[in-house]
Amino acid sequence: MSTDKLRNIGPKSAAWLRQVGLRTHEDLAAVGTVEAFMRVKRAGFKPTLNLLYAIEGALLDCHWQEIPDERRSELILAADAATALLPAPRNRPAAGPVRTTVLTEDTVAMPPLFDEPERGD
C-alpha cells in the first residue's frame, strides 16, 4: 500500500515521506516510526508531533488519536533523543551579531605597526 493511501497520512505528509524514500507501508515498517519521522526532519522539512503520531497510527492501522498516552510519551522521548544528535542548523548564526568599527586617524591615534629603524646620523 502506498503512503498516499495509508491511514492518517495526508497529501503533504505522503509527499514528505516519498521524498525521503518511504513509499509503502513496508518501507515505514522497516525503519519504524521514529526513524521515518527523523528522515523527514533531516531532509529539512518541519514535521510536528502530529506526523509522528500519524506514522505510528498508520503502522498500527488505527486513528492517531487512539495511540495511548504512554506510547506517545515514548515516541516523543525517542524523537527528542534523535533530534539532539542532529547537527546544528546552518541557517542560524553561530554567535551574536558582528559589529564593525571603522577607525580613522581622527578618532584614534594608531601606534605604528613596526618599530621605526634607528638612523645612525
TrEMBL record:
What the entry lists under InterPro entries is as follows:
TfoX-like (IPR047525), TfoX_C (IPR007077)
Judging by the UniProt lineage, the source's domain of life is Bacteria
Per UniProt, residues of the TfoX C-terminal domain are 5-76
The molecule here is called TfoX/Sxy family protein
